[in-house]
Amino acid sequence: MIAIIDYDAGNIKSVEKAVNALGYDAVVTRDKDVISGADHVILPGVGAFGDAMEKLHHYGLVDIIRKVVENKVPLLGICLGLQLMFESSEEAPGVEGLGLLKGRIILIPHGEDLKIPHIGWNSLQYPNQGRLFAGIPENSYVYFVHSYYLQAQEADIVKATTQYGTLIHASVEKDNVFACQFHPEKSSDVGMKILENFLKIEG
C-alpha cells in the first residue's frame, strides 16, 4: 500500500490518480498508523513553505515522516514536498523545514527572459546515477511549476539537474529518501516511469 500524505496541499489527487494508474493501491491519509504501515510514502504538494510546515505540525505529521525515514521506508517528495525535506526556505524566513536533507530553498533569480514562477517543460541532466531515472535517457523532459529551487549542500545526493536562469537541483536521493522538484505525475510517460521506478524500490 502506498500512503500519500494529506496536509491540505494542492496536487494530491493527481498523484493518487497516477499511482492508481500504475496498478498500486494508494491511500490519501494523515492517519499515523496507516502511514507507518505503508510500503512507500509520498509527500506531494503545491503551495507555500511556511503554510505547509504549519499544517504538518498541526496534523502531527512531522514525527511520523521522520519515523518513515528512520524505518527505511522509501519516501518521495514532489515539488513543495522536496522543498519541505530541507532545512529552510527564503520563502519563509525563520521557519524550519523537516531537515531530512541538508540544503536550502532559494528564489529563482529574475532575468529579462525568465518568467517566475517557472512553468513548463525542461530537460534533465544526470550528474550522479539515481534509481528514479533507471531506463530514462538523459535530456528527457519533465514538467515544472515553481518559484523557488533547491541548492543541496551535498553534491552527491543530486541525481538530476536542469537549467532555468541558474542550475537547479531537480532531483535528489539519499538512502531511502527521494525527491523531485518537477511533477512526475504531470510529466507524461517519463514521469510515470519515474514513479514506477520509485514504487519498485524495496524498503
Provide the descriptors you would attach to this structure in a database record.
single chain, 203 residues, alpha/beta, Rossmann fold, 7-stranded mixed beta sheet, 3-stranded mixed beta sheet, 6 helices, 26% helix, 29% strand
Layout of SSEs?
Elements: E1 2-5, H1 12-21, E2 26-29, H2 32-36, E3 40-43, H3 49-58, H4 62-70, E4 75-78, H5 80-84, E5 88-89, E6 103-107, E7 118-123, E8 141-146, E9 148-152, E10 158-163, E11 167-174, E12 177-180, H6 188-200
Account of the 3D structure:
It is a single chain. With 203 residues, the chain is an alpha/beta fold. It has one domain (2-200): Class I glutamine amidotransferase (GATase) domain (Rossmann fold, 3-Layer(aba) Sandwich), CATH 3.40.50. The chain is 26% helix and 29% strand. It has a 7-stranded mixed sheet. Strands 5-6-9 form a 3-stranded mixed sheet. The relative contact order is 0.17.
